[in-house]
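Hey, can you fold this one?
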Amino acid sequence: NTDSCTATVRISSSLLALVTNSGPICQGSVLQLNEISGQGTSWSWSSNGEAIFNDPGLQNPEVTNVSDGEEFTVTITLVNGCTGTGTTTAFVLEAPILEAGSEQQFCILEAPRVSDLSATGNGIVRWYEDADSTAELASDTALEDGTLYYGVLEDDNGCISERVEVVVRINMQGCEEIPEADRLGFSPNGDGVNDTFSISWLRNDYPNYRMSVYDRNGSLVYEGNISSPDWDGSADRG
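Sure. Predicted structure:
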């Protein structure tokens, strides 16, 4: 009799890694990579760009410094040593651009507020008091002369622009025209015309104001607030 034997050969079919990512993402954001086949025991990620992995050996790593169209490839290994690869492409949205100018000038007579700051861009503009603040300034916040304000633009995709720095100037140079009542001065002679000293916008824009008038010798001759009558030129002090 002739001896015989039987051998069984098993050939594993090629393994395809199933890969997804969290895109689209905004420029500068973190991209999450995912290998979801559920068959691998080890993973090795790479890209064809300059992306930075938190750990290329993880099944689902995070990457930063991602470019639009950058491809990410993972090689997975099974317990039996077989390998497979998969690729996914990143979609990165461009950051919006906010244009506001480095300096903005306002009329001191108009009591400018945050809502008066000028900026252009497609989206929602938000203003902050410093470069790192996360507390948005309310639109009715009074602007302060010589102060820096920082604006950002958020577009419809939720992407944020770089912060734009704007310095505010508040003075008479920003006024197109001084109100007629404020240019006439006053003549307290009892003729019924400009007999008292008043500033047309003061009570409305600065309800908590306090006014003091001194003579040439530095002596206080008048002191008043929103509850006081306009000054008629007479001394009520000293």
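The mean pLDDT is 87. Let me know if you want another pass with a different chain boundary.
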